[in-house]
Design goal:
The chain is built from 13 helices and 20 strands. The strands form 4 sheets. Strands 3, 6, 7, 8, 9, 10, 11, 12, 13 and 14 form a 10-stranded mixed beta sheet that branches.
Length: 542
């Protein structure tokens, strides 16, 4: 009897603990004395599976609708431009000017490849100078570049992109974590930024039916949209997890205010400014220049739809992570072409990366023709939304699965097949392809990633340590292209300098010859006249 009562007490206690932890899952993130407490979610693993099942809304590419949207957007821009007082697109707050953006000229000797096993890009464009060439040229010439890195859970939490950002910023300049959403509908961890938000209604492109119909048409490729009324707040704070994240000098808050609203922007708890945002359907930005390592947005009056904010530095490289878990890339068709184009006009993307496929792979499957066609549509859609950017398809990562009979992990057997179809899509669309699985296999494949602590024990998802290896390989490939271009430029400059020196030598010789010819022509005349010598002049004086 005592044993039975003891078991009942243990069971009751266990149930109480579980119920308590589940209840904590309904408590939002909060902050006390400067310490941030994330929402507790003991069902996160189960919830991830739930999202994977019912969130995969069956989006398909509708290019007729896309062209209609873009045409209407162009017409609206023309109409606004003819108004006596056009609606402002940009609201500025210059707290402290960031000054000049000059950087030292780059030299090829600083980019000499250190690895003999660099996985290079395949650029299938047939133009003499491709868009990817233009992207590399901007890097090599010290110009500012912006990268939109779209992906699934492989890069969620800024995995891969945080280290890629740091590597490129250390070589080409720039600071900050780039784009950070205003709010998202689930808890996540991101080392590169600290975000605290409250009182928003958040919506995901993966669950469009949960959003009001009017908002479904305003989704951006970031995948998430936050709607807030008076009292909605988000605070973005830079971290020091990577060398180039702090000391940011500019921020951009991207939002839509359909009706007139008033918002407050706060820097570091001390500097405050309010903005009256005129009502309009267009995406607007609040641009802040100054020390923006700690910036906060608060809705004072009205209602706004906020996508998020960017934290940046002195030009250089900016990388925006647009990861959407459980997305195989099709969700781009659920975003607004108009919103994407308007954000591109504000930020200006030079490279758009499409990293997907992890959720598509099936054990032993060899044919992915349908997905290849979907990737083609994704590329075409991205090209219309971001017309000045190069497009890069990043191949699927290595993956192993557990054998149900032996309970041992083994290759999924479809990585190479899916990679080949992704590559074929890039080829047919004349864009760039980069082979991620080749990089991972060169480092030992998924078993090595797991044994080294670079990937989770599900043999599917890499972690920050594994992301750093992928980022290093991608950086090496970019720097190799920069190195090659700088060598060509330096060789061209050397040849031009030699040509100029030879031209100057020839000009000097010609000038000397002309002088000699003049002397030779004048000498006989002088001799015939009998120009008096010094001695003859002396006699005449006597």
């Amino acid at each position: 009897m005592q044993i039975k009562k003891a078991n009942i007490r243990i069971a009751s206690f266990t149930l109480a603990v579980i119920l308590g932890l589940v209840a904590l899952g309904f408590v939002p993130s909060f902050e006390i004395f400067g310490m941030e407490f994330e929402r507790v979610d003991i069902l996160s693993q189960l919830r991830a599976e739930e999202i994977a099942e019912d969130a995969s809304h069956n989006y398909t590419a509708d290019f007729d609708l896309l062209e209609q949207e873009l045409a209407e957007a162009e017409a609206q821009i023309c109409e606004v431009d003819t108004l006596p007082e056009p609606i402002p697109v940009r609201y500025e707050w210059i707290v402290e000017s960031r000054g000049s953006n000059s950087r030292a000229a780059l030299r090829s000797e600083d980019f000499i490849p250190t690895s003999a096993n660099i996985v290079d890009f395949e650029d299938f464009d047939t133009l003499a100078t491709t868009r990817f060439d233009a992207f590399i040229s901007k890097l090599a010439n010290g110009e500012d570049v912006r990268i939109a890195f779209m992906g699934d859970s492989f890069v969620e939490g800024d995995i891969v992109t945080c280290d890629l950002r740091e590597e490129l910023q250390s070589r080409f300049g720039g600071r900050g974590a780039g784009f950070i959403p205003a709010d998202i509908p689930f808890a996540t961890v991101r080392k590169s930024i600290k975000r605290t938000s409250a009182n928003w209604k958040t919506y995901s492109v993966m669950k469009p039916k949960e959003a009001p119909e009017a908002l479904r048409e305003r989704l951006f490729v970031s995948g998430y949209l936050a709607e807030g009324r008076a009292g909605a707040t988000t605070r973005w704070q830079a971290t020091t997890s990577h060398a180039s994240l702090d000391s940011c000098t500019q921020a951009r808050i991207l939002l839509i205010s359909r009706d007139t609203s008033r918002v407050e922007v706060v820097l570091g708890d001390t500097l405050r400014n309010e903005f009256m945002i005129a009502g309009d359907e267009r995406v607007r930005e609040i641009y802040v220049e100054g020390p923006v390592d700690d910036i906060r947005l608060r809705v004072v009056e009205g209602s706004v739809m906020c996508y998020g904010a960017t934290m940046e530095g002195d030009g250089g490289v900016t990388i925006d992570n647009f990861s959407v878990r459980s997305n195989n890339g099709h969700a781009i068709f659920g975003t607004s072409a108009t919103v994407n184009r308007q954000v591109d006009e504000l930020l200006g993307y030079d490279l758009v990366v499409l990293q997907y496929g992890l959720n598509i792979m099936q054990k032993g499957q060899r044919v992915y023709a349908k997905y290849r066609d979907q990737v083609r549509d994704m590329i075409a859609y991205a090209e219309r939304c971001f017309p000045n950017a190069a497009i890069m398809v990043v191949g699927v990562s290595d993956r192993w699965v557990k054998n149900a009979e032996t309970n041992v992990y083994e290759p999924i057997g479809s990585v190479d097949a899916l990679t080949s179809y992704q590559r074929a899509a890039a080829d047919s669309c004349k864009v760039v392809f980069w082979n991620t699985s080749r990089v991972m296999k060169g480092l030992g494949g998924m078993p090595t990633f797991v044994s080294n602590g670079w990937a989770a024990k599900d043999y599917t998802h890499i972690n920050y340590a594994g992301g750093k290896r992928i980022a290093n390989a991608l950086t090496e490939a970019i720097c190799q292209r920069v190195y090659t271009l700088l060598l060509e430029q330096e060789e061209a400059a050397r040849i031009e300098a030699e040509r100029q020196a030879e031209l100057e030598r020839q000009q000097a010789l010609e000038a000397e010859m002309r002088l000699n010819n003049m002397v030779n022509a004048v000498t006989p005349i002088i001799d015939s006249v009998g120009w008096p010598t010094q001695k003859s002049r002396d006699y005449s004086e006597e």
